[in-house]
Amino acid sequence: MADLKPSEVDAISSTEHSEVNVPAKKVAMADDTKPEVNEKDIGRPADPERRQSQKSVYSSSGRKVSGWEALQMVAAGDLETINREMDDIEADLQTMNIKSTWYKPQLRLNDPRYFTWLLVGFASMGGLLSGVDQSLISGANLFMPSSLNLNTKQVSLVSSGVPLGAVGGALILGPLNEAVGRRMAIIISLVLYTVGAALEAGAIDFGMMVAGRIILGMGVGLEGGTVPVYVAESVSRKYRGNLVSLYQFMIALGEVFGYVIAAIFVNVKSGSWRYMLGSSLVFSTVMFVGIIFMPESPRFLMHKGRTTEAWHVWKQIRGEDAEARTEFFVMKYSVAEEFTNQEKSVNKRFPWMDFFTVPRARRAIIYANVMVFLGQFTGINAIQYYMATLMQQVGFDDKTSVFMSLVGGGSLLLGTIPAIFYMEKFGRRFWANAMLPGFFIGLIIIGCSYLIPLTNKAGSQGTYITGLIIYEGFFGCYSCLTWVIPSEVYPTYLRSYGMETSDVTLFLCSFLVTYFFAQMQEAMSQIGLTLGFYGGIAVVGWIYQILFMPETKNKTLEEIDIIFSQPTSQLVAENFRSSMVTATDFVCFRWGKVFSPVSESDIFRKENGHKSEMEPEAKHEELLY
Questions:
Q1: Predicted local distance difference test score (pLDDT) of residue 348
Q2: CA distance linking residue 556 with residue 488, whole number of Å
Q3: What was the pLDDT predicted at 189?
Q4: CB 291, CB 122: distance < 8 Å
Q5: Rounded CA Rg of the chain
Q6: Surface-to-core class of residue 403, CB atoms within 10 Å of its CB (0-12 exposed, 13-18 middle, 19+ buried)
Q7: Is the pLDDT of residue 143 over 60?
Q8: Which DSSP helix (H) or strand (E) runs through 95?
Q9: How far apart are CA 408 and CA 521, in angstroms?
Q10: Residue 57 belongs to what H/E stretch?
C-alpha cells in the first residue's frame, strides 16, 4: 500500500456524538492501487469505478475503514473526509455516460421528493394488487363453486391457492433478486399476476382455476418480499417505517376495492365471479407501466459493486444534501465491510449459511420470522378469505354478506392510516406492544358473538360486527410491522435470502391458516378457534415482543446492524428495563413519558453502550462474530 498522506483526520475526536463509546481511531485518505473489495465490473465502463475505488478511507493501521468506523466519522462531524470522497464519486459519475434505453428508461425530476413518492407509489401498488386478489375470492366463492361444480375440499384448495403459490414465489425470491435485482423481480411478478388473473377469469374447470390461483400466488409471493425491501433500501431513514407501512395500507385498500368490485358485479346474472376475478388485470397493467420507469435500488447496486451508478440513483431519489451524502458514505463502507466478511467466510459459496453460523444474522432471521408468524396465526387471512362466509354464519344472506364484508375491509384500511403517520414517531416496539392487545380484545368479542343464538339476529350480528371492527382496526396498525421489520433487519448481503425466508413463512402460514380453517372451526368450534387458538397465540406473542423486540425507529440500515450485533441477553436486559420503566410511568399517570417518541431502549443504550458478556465495553467487530 502506498504511504498515507500526512493530513490525518481524527475520526472520533469526541465520544459525546455517539451512542456507543469506542476508542478514537485515525483515518486518512490514500491514493492506493489496492482495489476496493466490493467493486466489480458488471456491464459498465471499468475505468471510472476503478479510479473511484483507489480513493478510499483507511485507518492509521493501514486497513480499510469499517462501516462502524464510518458511522463514527459522521457522528464526529468529519465532513472534510466525507466530502472529499463523495466529490471523487461525483467526478466519476460525470465521466459515465448513463443513457436512457427502452428497457431501462431514465426518468428525471427536479425535486427528489417527487421522485421518492413516485417510486413508493408505484412500488406499493403491488400491495394493492395483493389485496384485490385476496378479497375478490371472498365474493367469488358465493357463485363460483356451483358454476364449476366444486365440492368443499376443492373450494378450500381454490381459496388457499394464492398463499400456496406465494410460497413458490417466495422460494425463488432470493436467487431472482440476487440475479436480476429488485426492479426486474417486481416486473417478473407482474407478468405472473397477469397470467394468473387471465386463467382465473377464463377457468372452465377445477384444474384451470387452481392453476390460475397458484400462478397468481407466485406473483404475490415474489412481489410481496421484493417491494418492501426495494422501498426500505431507497428511502430516508426518517420516513422508512412510514413508507414501508404504506405497502400494508395499499393491501388494505386493495381488499376494500376487491369487496367493492364484488359488490358491483354481484347482481350480474351470468358469470359474475369471472368479472370479479378478471378485474385485477387493470391494476397489474397500470403498475407494470409505472415500474418500468423506476430505477434499481441504490443499495442493491452498491451490493453488486456498482458504486457510481448507485450514487446516480441516490441523487435522483435522495438529493445531494449533507444528510444524503453522509448516509451514502456510511452505506458504501458498510456494504464493503459485509463483502469483505463474506469473502473471508467459510460460507462464501452458500452465504445463507450465515443465518446459522453468524449470531447477528441468526438473531435477525429468528426475530423477523416470529413477527411474521404472529401476524398470520392470529387469523387475519382466514377471516379475510372467508369474510362473506363468516357473515353468513351470523345470519346475513348472500348479497348482504358481500356488502357487509366492506365493514371488515374498511376497518383494516382505516387501521393502517395511524401506522403510516405515527409509527416512525413512536417506534416499532411501542406500536407492536400497544396494538396486539387491541385486536386480542376484538377476538374476545367475536368469540362471544357466537354464544348469542341466531334467533337474536340483532344481538349476534351487532356483537360480531363490533368485534370485527376492533380486530381489523388494531390489526391494520399491527400488520404494517410484518413488512417493515423484515425489510430492515437483515444485513445487505443477506437481505434477499432473509426476505425469502420471511416471505415463505408469511405465505406458508397464510396457506395453513386458510386451507385448514373450515376443518379447524369444525374441530375446535367457532369460539374455540377464535378465542382459544388465535387469541392464545396473541397472548404468547405479546410476551415475546415485550422481552425480545428491539427498537429500530429512525435508524439507518447500517445502524440497525449495530443493534443486532448485541448479545441476546443484553437485548433482553434493555427491553425488560424499558418495559418496567414504561409500566411504572403508566401506573403513576406519567403518560407523557409513556407516549414519548424517545424510546427507553435508546436511552438505556446511550447510557450503557453495547456490552458483551466477555468485556464491559465491546467493539462492533467483536460483537459481530
A1: 62
A2: 9
A3: 93
A4: yes
A5: 26
A6: middle
A7: yes
A8: helix 79-95
A9: 20
A10: strand 55-59
End-to-end CA distance of the chain: 27
70 contacts 330 by C-beta, under 8 angstroms: yes
Q: What is the predicted pLDDT for the residue at 18?
A: 36
Place of cell 362473506: 388
User: Mind listing the pLDDT tens digit for each residue in 73-114?
Assistant: 888 888 888 888 888 888 888 888 777 777 777 777 778 888
d(CA 201, CA 266): 15
Distances (CA, A) of 366 to 131, 233, 505: 27, 21, 11
Neighbours of 432 (CB within 10 A): 23
Cell of 164: 400456496
Rounded CA gap, 594 and 580, in Å?
11
What CA–CA distance (Å, rounded) separates 82 from 325? 8
Lowest mean pLDDT among 41-45, 281-285, 481-485: 41-45
Contact 96, 44 (CB under 8 A): yes
pLDDT band of residue 341 (cuts 50, 70, 90) is low
One-letter identity of residue 409: G
Residues 256, 406: contact at Cβ < 8 Å? yes
Q: Which of 61-65, 381-385, 536-540 has the highest mean pLDDT?
A: 536-540
Cell numbers standing for residue 96: 459515465
Amino acid (one-letter) located at 481:
L
Which residues does 235 contact at the CB level (< 8 Å), separation at least 6? 116, 120, 243, 317
Nearest partner of 71 among 329, 320, 340, 308, judged by Cα: 329
Write the pLDDT tens digit of every residue in 64-81: 677 777 878 888 888 888
d(CA 458, CA 236): 49
Average pLDDT over residues 562-588: 83
Q: How far apart are CA 430 and CA 136, in angstroms?
A: 33
User: In angstroms, what CA-CA distances link 510 with 8, 20, 381?
Assistant: 56, 40, 6
Give me the sheet containing 9-10, strands edge to edge.
Answer: 9-10, 26-31, 55-59
What DSSP element (H or E) covers 465?
Answer: helix 457-479
Residues linked to residue 58 through DSSP beta bridges, in sequence order: 28, 64
Cα 295 from Cα 313, distance rounded (Å): 7
Average pLDDT in the chain: 78
Alpha helices of 141-205 — where are they, by DSSP H? 144-148, 152-159, 161-171, 173-201
* The pLDDT value given to residue 599: 56
Could you tell me how far CA 520 lies from the centroid of its own chain? Answer: 30
Print burial letters for 131-146: b (CB count within 10 Å at least 16), e (below 16).
Answer: bbbbbbbbbbbbbbbe
> What does the block give as the cell for 592?
407523557
| pLDDT confidence tier of residue 54, bands split at 50, 70 and 90 | very low
Residue 605, pLDDT > 70, answer no
Residue 395 CA to residue 387 CA, distance in Å, equals 13
Name the DSSP letter for residue 271. Answer: S
CB environment 487-500: b (16+ within 10 A), e (fewer):
bbbbbbbbbbbbbb
Give the DSSP letter string of 415-444: HHHHHHHHHHHH-HHHHHHHHHHHHHHHHH
Cβ atoms of 408 and 139 within 8 Å: the answer is no
DSSP 2: P
DSSP letter for 358, please.
-
* 260 within 8 A of 138, measured Cβ to Cβ: no
pLDDT at 524 over 70: yes
Q: Distance between CA atoms of 605 and 610, rounded to whole angstroms?
A: 7
